Amino acid sequence: MADGWREVFERSRVVPPPSQTVRLAVESHFTQSHGFQLSLSRLTAAHLPQGEHDVTFQLRVTLFDRNHQHFFGKTWKSPPQRMKNNKISFNEVLYFHTSLRLPSAVVVLELVSLSPRPDGSQQALGRGFTVLELFTNRPEAQATDGDRRLNLHHGSPRSLLHPHLKDIIDSHLECMIKNHPALVSVMHLLPENVLISGNENIPGLAASPTGDALLKPHLLKMLPFTLNRLTVSLQPSLEKFESQLLQLINADCHNTKQPGPESALRTVVIQERRLHVGVHNGWCFLDKPQVVVLEPLASGARGRSDSTSKQSTLVRDSSATSSLPQTLGLRSSLELRLTNHQALAVVFQLECVFSAPIGRETMVRGMHKHTYTHSFLISSRSSLAHLYSAGFPDIMDCSGQVAEVLDPTEPVPFDPQREDTDPLQGNLLVFQFLAFTRIPTAGVGPDWPNNIYFTFQFYRFPPVTSQRLKLLTSDKVQLKASIPCVLASINKDGTVNSGSPGLQVQFRVDEGFLRPGEKRWFLRYLALHTMHIDIWDSDSLLLIGSTAIELKYMLRQGKSAVQALHEVEVLTTDYVGEDTPLTSADVGQRSILSPMTVLTIIRGRLHIRTGNIGCQVDPSRRRAADVMPSHSHIIIPREVTGGFRGGSLSSRNILQLNGKHFNPQPTESCQSRLATELNQLKPSEKHSKAEGIANMLSQAITTQHLLYASLGSAEYMEFVLKNPFNAPQTVTIHSDDPELSVITNTEEWGYFKALTKTPTPLEENMFHLEEGAPGPRVYLRPKESIHIPLKYQSFLCDHTMALQVHWRPKVDADGTVSNGQLIKPCFRNAEDGKPMAICQVNVEPTPHVVDQTFRLYHPELCFLKKAIRLPPWHDPTGSTVGDSHVRTHVSVRCSDPNIICQTRMLVPGEPQDVYLKVSGSPSPHIKMFFVMVFTDKWMAAPSQIWQIYVHFLERVDVSCVTGQRSCQSLVLRGKQAVRKVKCFSSHPQEIEVDPESVFVLPPAAVQELQLKVQPWRAGSRFLYVNAVDVENQRLVTAWLLCLNVHRPVLSKAFEVCVPGSGGRGSSRKITYTNPYSSSRTFLLRSDHPDLLQFKEDKFQIGGGESYTIGLRFAPSQSPGSVEILVYVNNLEEKTEETFCVKVNYS
């Protein structure tokens, strides 16, 4: 009987190629897949001994990427063949198709001998391998067709990791590779990079009388089918299923509390239910799955039943007599194409789309942002008096007393023992956002920003996006810009909340939140971390800037409550090119951008108050959050003294084992204890006896260890391995996760022992590393115990979470861990493979330090190549990076494996850079990842961790002249729904967008936008334009304006002297003659309106007549000189003449 879909699917698992190779193929324009035929004739193996009975030989073929040392695809295995006269005839033909037509893609062929074992299985032994080159370095990258004679190499294909290979004399494989264009017609039936013979089962492909269906492939006839009255039911009911799903999703949001007038719980809701439907042949989908939207149907409306069938749904209803549950249904029909084949299946995948009211799509400006972590007070007494008179709520302890005030300019002593002995073990962490001080900025008005909001993340709580906040201004504030603007929350209807000013966000950290042993990590987080805060313009969704708050002032140190007032600068960075004068030859031509300089700009000052209120903890509900299960780095296996618990061999009796992956051999002591347990087994038990025995035996030899780890930091541990036998044993150490490894280097072992102060013996050359072995081997004498050094280190994290990885493993009723990372290194006997001990490591990730945050801005669909200069700092050995007398080992790692991140070793004393290469994405996608910088040889812990955001936007190049208006058209395309859109620019005094008011954007419509750019500063600059959905406060589209601004051609130059500080300024006159024969109206503009004012900004004169321009120069606060440009523009803001006035302040 032919195999069904599930059998074909289980056999067709494919390992994907490296993502870097796929990107390289796309960049090389190799997007079309090509078919190839590989013929394997015979192999001459003079090196193999003759006369081995019952020994057969097999050829195994796999694709390999040499650049990234990565096997991919699926290994093909030939039928076993016997050797005659040192020759093995295979006579097999393989087919595959691939778009990775790169020289690095090769085929690896391995010869394996198969010999029978006493238990009936076969033992496979590698007898050599060879490599087949597929593609050359020619631009067309055609396959190197023709016959091949390939020499075999010693060992297994793992030797490809070594640079040198040794050929086997007189041993070679004869084969032939050529293009196979006939494979194009069946490429939709097979995934790429899969080696397959013509006689294998390929559903959708007609059988061939020759046995090779891929030589001249013929497709089975596909017939159209219609899928009607499709419904999906979820148990126990749709309402309960979705309710439980939403409860799990909302659970992470309940730890964050934002009191206010709209303090009702903001929950995640299901916005849409989608169903992906496609025809699958066990290898791949024949066509791209269709995506349809499901609608909830009332009970009893699951679909109509016809006369031939009582069942009208795809889900069988076991209770025909009971009332039908509420279901999801598709009102329309689906068109599918199928053929009569047993292995074809229609695959359904249910997808739920969620939405949260607090979320914002913040595709905003900002290219390169540093985070400064210092806090300092710079406000005057009058500013502080204005701030305290606003009526902000006080931070008070549980007894109603005002919290003790800490000075953020003073150091904070940290005593962990005092925190441990604090009777108030609960902590209520409070952040009060009080006010924002505006700082005059070029290109924006004095009342910018008007409304703001904040984004940040505290510890492992969910990321916070605050509500919109209004900057309240008064007459006093308008007269003096240095007075802080008090913040007030904005209601949903747009009105300002008249209650308490400011915004308060609080987090409760107590025994109900912390995991066992996590308290010391939380205190360490407060003592060492800074919390990064982004400040956004809530109208335009443009980034205003960023800042950071030191959290160490939230340590109570035995006090009932503490508070501290911080005033921190809100910083951003700008990229500015050098000024380039404009000549007559440059007019109308596009110039090359000049080299850019990074400038740090202060956009404002944020006033924020932090506090920590101690809370009582119910002794009856206290957990051991402050007790670490094992502070020691030494893992000692527990002694098995008692018997197994009675009862069934179910998972409820086998605690956290996953023992079905192991097959241990019971010892004599275990066999005696199992006798009673086996008698209690019932015939109706779901699990087999053999599986239950294996699970219970695994439990007896398993030692659990809880490990708290952070990104990039290595966690060292030693497992005490004991030989319980009276005979020597050789043990192989297996690890199912590469992030947990055995330290085999003696120098590295000693480094970590000294770092962790582990007083155990160090033994040199303890491990035996054998090529092809699953892990290192160690020899144990009878009854001997040794310490096995282990290291856990992870450089990867989930980038779908906003700021840092945070998740809490949950323990089910049967005690198994349903979430979280679980690694089980196994210590097996090297001879029979039976486990001697198992170490189950439960890894709990903890938040990591972010030393610096970068926001990089780049055009969409383009590779970002960036170099970040490493600052000088001290490594653990005491040397300084950048010191010409010391050569420091610097290495980097990236949390995203698809991003190229490296650093180059330069000569001592020279600066060192970190190089990044990030693949482009469509606008307005944002990529976030972490870069870890290590300065110690063994990378024990990162010296710095950088958080990097890459914003991809549509690029618009504009070449213009200062003081003159240039127009540029943009195209805004509508999405699926009608939206009310308004456009905002980052510099409204230099960029005007038409239409400037709110307009309606219909679905799939095209709206033309007119940009009127009138810059006042020469050089290369980046400006930003956002199109915002004003109803939903979501970003529709964002543009990057790359301005290349030239200096104008000067008509005349003047020089005046103006009194300095204390003077009354000076007045001057300039004569201008109308060069036209008719009357014209002209406008006067200046690039320094704060220093120069005109008597009239607009004047009209007749043809050929002259007009006297009155100039009024304001006094300067300091002596010096400045050049001021005066523009005479027409009504269309085109410059007629430009005067340069050099002002000397005495």
Automatic annotation (TrEMBL):
Domain (NPHP4 Ig-like) spans 703-847, 854-951, 962-1045, 1051-1145
Q: Outline the extent of the NPHP4 C2-like domain.
A: 382-615
Kindly list the GO CC terms recorded for this protein: ciliary basal body; ciliary base; ciliary transition zone; non-motile cilium
Q: Which Pfam families match?
A: Ig_NPH4_3rd, Ig_NPHP4_1st, Ig_NPHP4_2nd, Ig_NPHP4_4th, NPHP4_C2_3rd
Q: Name one GO biological process term.
A: protein localization to ciliary transition zone
Q: Which InterPro entries match?
A: Ig_NPHP4_1st, Ig_NPHP4_2nd, Ig_NPHP4_3rd, Ig_NPHP4_4th, NPHP4, NPHP4_C2-like
Organism listed in the record: Sander lucioperca (Pike-perch)
The protein's name in its UniProt record: Nephrocystin 4
